[in-house]
């Protein structure tokens, strides 16, 4: 089995696990707090550290072997889920434990996603990068497609601790698969790289975004979409579907599946529209 196949299998396992928690966790928090506003506050607190640490995290990942970072991240997620599962089995539902668990999972999930994507580019030749990138995208979407339904079904029948235990098993399997990827140095063992400080790299990135008008528009668009849409899965959808329309938690995953189908259909519609291109969306005009 090739190195890229090992990475694909590991990503499928970790992506499947990562797609379950954002759907089931809000249901558990909403059930525990009985308040949509408190649920929103909970996820704001838990997501803020990972967002603030992302720039520094990218710089840190660049300094180390990407396979080691990926393995460390997925193994840490497995350990966190194992510990949380045991705490839940013993009836420890303390809010502070849930906050700490959610913060750490968000941080290491972000680290896993960044490192595995960089590792992917290192394992694939530049001439085949576009082909394998398409395969990776398809596998990622297929991995997360059935996760919400399965997660909510397990949550509704067996409880939140069983869901976390399943996540721990999936992350352990992903770590085992990652371990089979052989380490290779693409620069022939020459690791002497001119180091730049975090502040220098951050200023270079800001300068690039500010001077490239198309990138700036894309950056602002993503910020707006994240602000208005990103919270729908964790806060808005559970509040509307469960509190207002009393949808059973065991079939709440259908909401996320419907959302995924919409994303897939929109992607196909973009492919069918020949006239639509990045230039038409982000013309090189002055702001």
Automatic annotation (TrEMBL):
Tagged with keyword Transit peptide: no
GO cellular component: plasma membrane
Residue stretches spanning the membrane: 12-29, 41-62, 95-114, 164-183, 214-231, 251-271
Topology in the lipid bilayer: Multi-pass membrane protein
Top-rank lineage group of the source organism: Bacteria
Keywords: Cell membrane, Membrane, Transmembrane, Transmembrane helix
Cellular localisation: Cell membrane
SUPFAM superfamilies associated with the record: MFS general substrate transporter
GO MF, one example: transmembrane transporter activity
Protein name: MFS transporter
Gene this chain is encoded by: yliC
């Amino acid at each position: 089995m090739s190195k890229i196949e090992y990475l694909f299998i590991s990503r499928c396992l970790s992506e499947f696990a990562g797609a379950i928690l954002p759907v089931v966790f809000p249901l558990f928090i909403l059930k525990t707090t009985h308040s949509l506003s408190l649920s929103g506050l909970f996820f704001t607190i838990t997501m803020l550290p990972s967002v603030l640490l992302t720039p520094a995290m990218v710089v840190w990942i660049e300094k180390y072997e990407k396979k080691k970072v990926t393995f460390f991240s997925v193994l840490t997620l497995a350990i966190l889920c194992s510990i949380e599962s045991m705490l839940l089995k013993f009836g420890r539902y303390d809010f502070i434990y849930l906050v700490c668990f959610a913060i750490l999972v968000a941080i290491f999930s972000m680290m896993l996603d960044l490192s595995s994507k960089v590792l992917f580019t290192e394992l694939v030749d530049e001439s085949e990068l576009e082909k394998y990138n398409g395969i990776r995208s398809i596998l990622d979407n297929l991995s997360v497609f059935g996760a919400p339904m399965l997660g909510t079904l397990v949550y509704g029948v067996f409880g939140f601790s069983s869901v976390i235990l399943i996540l721990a098993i999936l992350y352990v399997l992903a770590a085992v698969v990652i371990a089979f990827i052989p380490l290779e140095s693409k620069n022939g063992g020459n690791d002497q790289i001119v180091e730049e400080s975090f502040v220098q790299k951050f200023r270079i990135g800001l300068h690039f975004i500010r001077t490239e008008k198309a990138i700036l528009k894309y950056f602002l668009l993503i910020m707006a979409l994240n602000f208005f849409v990103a919270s729908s899965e964790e806060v808005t959808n559970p509040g509307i579907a469960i509190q207002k329309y009393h949808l059973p938690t065991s079939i709440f995953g259908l909401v996320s599946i419907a959302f995924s189908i919409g994303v897939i259909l929109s992607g196909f519609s973009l492919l069918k529209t020949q006239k639509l291109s990045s230039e038409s969306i982000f013309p090189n005009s002055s702001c």
